[in-house]
UniProtKB/TrEMBL annotation:
Domain Molybdopterin dinucleotide-binding: residue ranges: 693-779
Keyword Lipid metabolism assigned: no
InterPro entries in alphabetical order: AioA/IdrA_3Fe-4S, AioA/IdrA_lsu, Asp_de-COase-like_dom_sf, MoPterin_dinucl-bd_dom, Mopterin_OxRdtase, Prok_molybdopt-oxidoreductase
Residues annotated as domain Arsenite oxidase subunit AioA/Iodate reductase subunit IdrA 3Fe-4S cluster: 24-119
Record has Metal-binding as a keyword: yes
Keywords, ordered alphabetically: Iron, Iron-sulfur, Metal-binding
Molybdopterin oxidoreductase domain residues: 123-578
Protein name: Arsenite oxidase large subunit
UniProt cross-references to Pfam families, sorted A to Z: Molybdopterin (PF00384), Molydop_binding (PF01568), Rieske_3 (PF18465)
């Protein structure tokens, strides 16, 4: 662990340092930070007038002082071409995090590219094209010309089906309103691309179709609701590690205010432990269910609550559909939707039956129902906030399972009320503003399988890496390498020819089954190794970027540094592709089609914001957002008064539900009965393999390690993805902590670093997902639900030892995740 051993002093922020608002661009929570920059040849001083904090730094500061920062919050970067000191530190005045950082966000500064301190030298600086058997740096004009010429050959006015697109749909890191608009305008307005997917799933669809179909948008409460609720229900989510400051700054205070917590997760997470510490073990109920059985337990909770009469009848009468079935099962709706009584009938599940399916006790299910809904002794209703994330979304039978949670919230009148909500806890921040995607259809195309099946001729990829994060990844990589190599070989064979001849050669290889791959990223990613053109993007902070967090809090992150080299905002890259397509199409005499690619004369990201988001939200401008600072405004924005944007603290406070677009404004219940492991191939995989390969995140690592892989602090801790395994199982396999193991099953194999963990249940492992040195997705089968939602979490495989610990793995600690406080 050589990490920052030699940092014994850091410069003091001078009083006149520039100060900018920053929303952490990693997770959904969107903590507020301040970025301070000042010229390299200056430093602040100890006297109050000489430093930004205005305090006497020659004296010992109190424990809770704001007047400090850690080495990870410091760097030297370029600003308008000059080297400047940079400090990015948490903002005590931001309502989201009140000055808290996290082990990810507090490393924002050291994860910027610096030519002085040498950090993140992996960042792309110039466009690159495949030439002479490798990637050669080139200009934007050259790279975009090649992209446009090849793309133009495979698309036409009425048929754009051979252009495949993988694109982010989120805010924060990559994404944001500017960039979803730039890409959205290109692919959904100028074109009508239907063969597309989102960064985290193999189709262009919703993660949570059912709640929307029921009328309930998935981010409907405020973080402060967790502080005042009677009961929190956390289903398939691990907020201490994944929504850290929502947990620490809002949920923990809620527990200290007396809230009880029900957690549904097959794994004993550090969140369970932390809740027990904060609330007292007697106020925490962990339903440690068998994997994939959430629907059974949720339907049993709903049944028991309804049978006991603990429902909010007034709310049900006023705000929900009353009359049988409103939406029958069809191709777009895996289950029917309708009235409370219809749902009661369809979802009926006794606590005893659920207990048998889920492997928890009947008494605990009844206790959970009581904590959620049994009125207080004085007869008043209990408030309950339900939160779910990837254990459910990427879990078994997404549609009825999410629907079953919303059923409970609707039945108990806990939406639009203080202390209520039934919400995704979220992943990235949000920042979606695009033209309609209706042409994509539902169910949407299963893009990865189409590629595996030989379809798609040109593939544009924006800010995601299938090689690390998709399902059925072993097969995907085999096919993608083969198909993209066909094009590389054709390009190599025609090196030294004219552009026309080169394009002909590429198209020839495409027609023979190849695929031409364009990768827009900030680093040279793993799927980027297969690309033919690589386009360098900037990140948040290297551009102005707007996003909203998990309580719909919209903020502007102000640009505080230059992007590396000639990298550009994604929205301006999309504009560049459009402009080059227009030019090429005109040259080819395809004027009518070329006309579609006009309207991209944006000079800045703000122009893209004005062209997109602002047309739908005329009150919101950069200037106004800047003035709203790190507390921003909660969407939807309803007006502008007294110099402030006016927002919406909580959705559905009026009891009118509109997310489904029904005119009556009534919410629908979900009529989804338990039906076992739903996705094709899962039940067989479970039957034929010993270990559950549960998977997900760790506090330290951000996503697919795109920055972490070049960060000593992260790599020193986990040089390889860990797989937590029960110590007796490990003994059985002859495996010790640090050993490299192979995880293998019917669809593929991957590797991981064994981490013996006493809290892991026998035969149930947990592997860090998305790692460059061992993709968990290699062993996930292609099974998805009817609407092409993947089931990443339910994966079974066998495990064998392949090597003793590497020198890097030998040095690390294998202490239990669960620390004794
Ligand atoms: N097994 C398993 N698989 C999963 C999941 C799971 O739980 N288990 N979870 C799924 C989920 S929820 C997610 S979100 C996905 C994540 O999967 P990905 O989306 O593939 O992962 P990220 O790390 O978010 O990818 C970000 C990519 O964008 C690049 N990038 C970062 N910032 C920018 C930018 O500003 N512009 C551009 N153009 N590029 C940028 C990064 O270098 C990186 O290559 O994985 C999914 N896959
Ligand atoms: N530190 C960190 N934070 C992050 C991210 C990150 O990469 N690192 N990524 C962000 C993103 S994009 C996302 S989408 C979110 C994801 O946030 P979360 O969903 O909270 O995180 P995961 O670890 O993917 O999965 C959550 C839990 O699902 C459980 N689970 C597995 N199978 C089942 C099941 O059958 N039923 C139930 N009930 N639970 C099950 C797992 O044991 C795990 O504890 O995190 C965001 N925050
Ligand atoms: S909790 Fe999320 S948003 Fe907040 S600092 Fe950590 S990674 Fe950033
Ligand atoms: Mo995600």
């Amino acid at each position: 662990m050589a990490y920052k051993r030699f940092t014994d002093r850091l410069p003091i922020i001078p009083a006149d340092a520039q100060e900018r608002n920053v929303t952490c661009h990693y997770c959904i929570v969107g903590c507020g930070y301040k970025a301070y920059t000042w010229p390299l040849n200056r430093q602040g001083g100890g006297a109050p007038s000489d430093n930004k904090f205005g305090v006497d730094l020659t004296r010992q500061q109190p424990t809770e002082t704001e007047a400090w920062y850690a080495p990870s919050m410091y760097n030297v970067v370029k600003q308008d071409g000059r080297d400047v000191h940079l400090v990015i530190k948490p903002d005590v005045n931001c309502a989201v995090n009140s000055g808290l950082g996290s082990v990810r966000g507090a490393r924002m500064a050291e994860n910027r590219r610096s030519d002085i301190t040498g950090t993140q030298q992996q960042r792309l600086t110039e466009p690159m094209v495949w030439r002479y058997g490798t990637w050669q740096p080139t200009t934007w004009a050259d790279a975009l010309d090649l992209v446009a010429r090849v793309t133009a050959r495979v698309i036409d006015m009425d048929n754009e089906d051979d252009l495949f697109v993988s694109m982010f749909d989120h805010g924060g890191s990559a994404g944001g309103y500017e960039n979803t608009w730039g890409t959205g305008k290109l692919y959904f307005d100028s074109m009508k691309v239907k063969n597309c997917r989102i960064h985290n799933r193999p189709a262009y669809n919703s993660e949570v179709h059912s709640t929307r179909d029921m009328g309930v948008g998935e981010l409907n409460n405020a973080y402060s609701d967790y502080e005042i609720t009677d009961t929190m229900v956390l289903v398939g989510t691990n907020p201490l590690e994944c929504q850290t400051n929502l947990f620490l700054n809002h949920m923990i205070p809620g527990m200290r205010n007396g809230a009880r917590v029900v957690i549904i997760d097959p794994r004993r997470t550090v969140t369970v432990n932390a809740c027990e510490e904060a609330a007292g073990a007697e106020n925490v109920l962990h339903l440690q269910i068998a994997p994939g059985t959430d629907l059974a337990v949720a339907n049993a909770l709903f049944t028991h609550i309804a049978d006991q009469g603990w429902v909010d009848s007034d709310f049900i009468a006023a705000s929900t559909f009353a009359d049988g079935v409103a939406q029958a099962v069809d191709e777009a709706h895996p289950t029917a939707l309708g009235s409370f009584e219809a749902a009661r009938e369809e979802c009926r599940m006794s606590a005893a039956d659920a207990a048998a399916i889920c492997g928890v006790s009947e008494a605990d299910i009844i206790k959970a129902a009581e904590w959620i809904a049994r009125p207080h002794d004085d007869g008043t209703r209990r408030t309950c906030a339900i939160a779910y994330e990837k254990g459910v979304i990427w879990g078994n039978d997404n549609y009825p399972t999410v629907g079953a949670l919303v059923n409970i919230a609707l039945a108990t009148g806990n939406i639009g009320r203080e202390g209520g909500g039934v919400c995704r806890l979220g992943g990235h921040q949000e920042g979606y503003f695009r033209p309609s995607d209706a042409h994509v259809g539902r169910p949407a195309a299963y893009l990865d399988q189409l590629i595996i099946g030989g379809q798609g001729k040109v593939h544009h990829i924006w800010a995601n890496d299938h090689y690390k994060t998709t399902l059925n990844a072993s097969e995907f990589k085999r096919v993608y390498n083969r198909r993209s190599n066909m094009v590389k070989e054709a390009m190599d064979a025609r090196a030294g020819t004219t552009r026309e001849e080169l394009v002909d050669a590429i198209v020839g290889a495409i027609e023979a089954g190849g695929i031409f791959s364009v990768n827009v990223d900030v680093i040279h990613s793993q799927i980027g190794q297969a690309a033919h053109v690589i386009l360098p993007a900037v990140e948040s902070g290297e551009m102005n970027l707007t996003s909203m967090n998990g309580e719909r809090r919209l903020r502007l992150t102000e640009k505080y540094m230059d992007g590396p080299g000639s990298s550009k905002p994604d929205c301006l890259i999309a504009a560049g592709i459009a402009q080059h397509l227009e030019r090429v199409l005109r040259e080819e005499g395809r004027d009518a089609y070329a006309d579609r690619f006009t309207g991209y004369d944006w000079q800045t990201e703000e122009d893209a914001f004005v062209d997109g988001y602002q047309t739908g939200n005329p009150e919101v401008t950069y200037d106004r957002l800047r003035a709203m600072g790190n507390n921003g405004v909660q969407e939807p924005v309803t007006g502008y008064a007294d110099g402030k944007l006016v927002g919406t603290n909580r959705l559905y406070a009026d009891g009118v539900f509109n997310r489904h677009g029904r005119e009556d404004g009534k919410a629908l219940f979900c009529l989804g009965a338990w039906r076992g492991l739903q996705a094709p191939g899962k039940a067989q995989q479970q039957a034929n393999h010993r270990f559950l390969i549960n998977n997900g995140r760790s506090n330290l690592n951000w996503q697919n390690w795109f920055l972490d892989q070049d960060n000593d602090f992260a790599i020193d801790r986990f040089p390889l993805p860990f797989i937590q395994i029960n110590p007796e199982d490990a003994a059985d396999l002859g495996v010790k902590s640090g050993d490299m193991v192979e995880v293998y099953n019917d669809v593929g194999a991957t590797q991981a670093m064994a981490y013996l963990e006493p809290t892991a249940r026998p035969n149930e492992t947990f592997m860090l997902f998305g790692a460059p040195s061992g993709a968990q997705g290699n062993v996930i089968n292609p099974g998805v639900n009817e609407l092409v939602l993947p089931n990443y979490k339910q994966t079974w495989a066998n495990i064998r030892k392949i090597a003793d610990p590497s020198p890097a793995a030998e040095k690390i600690s294998f202490k239990s995740w669960e620390v004794e406080l």
